[in-house]
Amino acid sequence: MQTTEKKGILKSILGILTALIFLVGINPLYSGKINEISAAEDYHTWRQMDPRWGNVSMNGTTVAKSGCLITSLSIMARASDSLDSKALENLGISRVDDFNPGILANAYTNRGGFSYGGAIASWGTISQIIPQITFVRDSYFNSYTQSGIASEIKAMMDQGLHVIVNVNWHWVYIEGVVGNDIYMIDPASDTVLLYDEYQLSGGNEYWALTCKNPPAPFNPSGTSTTTTTTETTTTTTTEATTTSTTTTTATTTTTTTEATTTTTPETTTTTKATTTTAVTTTTGRLIDTTVTAMQTGEYFNSGTAKIGMYDSSDCTGEPVSYVIPDGVVNVRECIGTIGHIAGADDFAGWIDLSGMTFVKAEMPHEKGDINGDGKIDMYDLGLLGEYLNSLAYMPDGVSMLTACEIKAADINGDGKVNSGDVLVYLILVCK
Ligand SMILES: [Ca+2]
Ligand SMILES: [Ca+2]
Predict the structure, then answer these.
(1) Crossing angle between the packed helical segments 419-429 and 9-23, to the nearest 10 degrees
(2) Which pLDDT belongs to residue 187?
């Protein structure tokens, strides 16, 4: 989509590479050794792709490819100070500082803890390895909104439970909740705010567990203090944990080029001169400023706020879903300024089109040139990555790309837009 061209480009390409590792089994080469761990390493920096343990096998896969849950469990074990002497013995290490996700993966493997493909075979295995950790439940959030999910997690954490959340087929450890902000330690990224990295459609799976210590009071300003409760009343250890928060400010510059073509009659006939103003967005998406009455066709949210979609044409009450900025809808019929949006089941909702921008019927894009700038390059690859990621969270009837853009994204021409197209792009773009 036009404004996503630059803002998410690096994230998208990283996303594509990660997706490829899952989808087509590319196995990056790792040369590190699992035991090359510096002492007292901050578990906030543990990523499943870390070359020190990324190639540790997990029954047909590796920690790098499929170890997000193992890495999240490892982070939780360290955050909760659950590695007692029995756990160290089970893990085959002598010091807490020797622990890392590769060590835990090996302990699972030694117990037959992974089914083929790296899935954890039994919830109870974690307690067999680290006795201070007890699996409580594997369940699903009741909520479908950020505020609802945040309050469900907060309530569990207030009860002393540690929570690991499945965000679109990937697991992250939750470090704290402040208001609607959910702070995570993500085995795949340095992002700390969950919704900065992942769009949840709601109802997500989660694991809740108890550990030696409950989740530490969380301070998003960067420093959280973990007070280690003790089993006896004689000693209290206070451990200061510094959370490194990196704030990345992405500045998006949208260049809008207004091309005004005035067709002036050269002869003095009575023909009226017609003036058509076509505004070219940075993706080449044309919007037609001559259209005043609402008409059927594709519209996109060109604003910065999401726009509600309703189940009745008076567009009142609670929206059934939203069209996020840049989201594209296909309007099948209009009643005044209200449009009926097509969906999987013909009807996805009603929306007030006055907040949306009509997409002019476009010239078909060249195969592969999603943003219509005449080139096939990393920007198109980035858009493809964002589009594939968006399939997991876009509500019914809303797409990140227009029909023409989706057609262009099918670079291998098999009628589907998927990882096969990513591979072709990678070959073309990364040569
Ligand atoms: Ca292009
Ligand atoms: Ca294809």
Answers:
(1) 120
(2) 96
Give the DSSP per-residue string, 125-176.
HHHHHSTT-EEEEEEE-S--SHHHHHHHHHHHHHTT-EEEEESSS-EEEEEE
For residue 162, report the phi and psi dihedrals to the nearest 5 degrees. Answer: -95, 140
Ligand nearest to the CA of 428: 1
The span from the CA of 24 to the CA of 427, in Å, is 14
**Mean pLDDT computed over 263-292:** 41
Looking at the CA of 416, which ligand is closest? 2
Q: Looking at the CA of 368, name the nearest ligand.
A: 1
Q: Which of the residue ranges 81-95, 234-248, 270-284 has the most confident prediction, judged by mean pLDDT?
A: 81-95
* Residue 52: partners with Cβ closer than 8 Å, 6 or more residues away: 32, 33, 34, 36, 37, 100, 102
From the CA of 48, how far away is ligand 2's center (Å)?
A: 29
Burial pattern 286-297, b for ≥16 Cβ within 10 A else e, equals: bbbeeeeebeeb
Q: How far is the CA of 426 from the centre of ligand 1 (A)?
A: 14
CA 329 – ligand 1 centroid, Å: 22
CB proximity list for 212: less than 8 A, separation 6 or greater: 80, 81, 82, 84, 132, 133
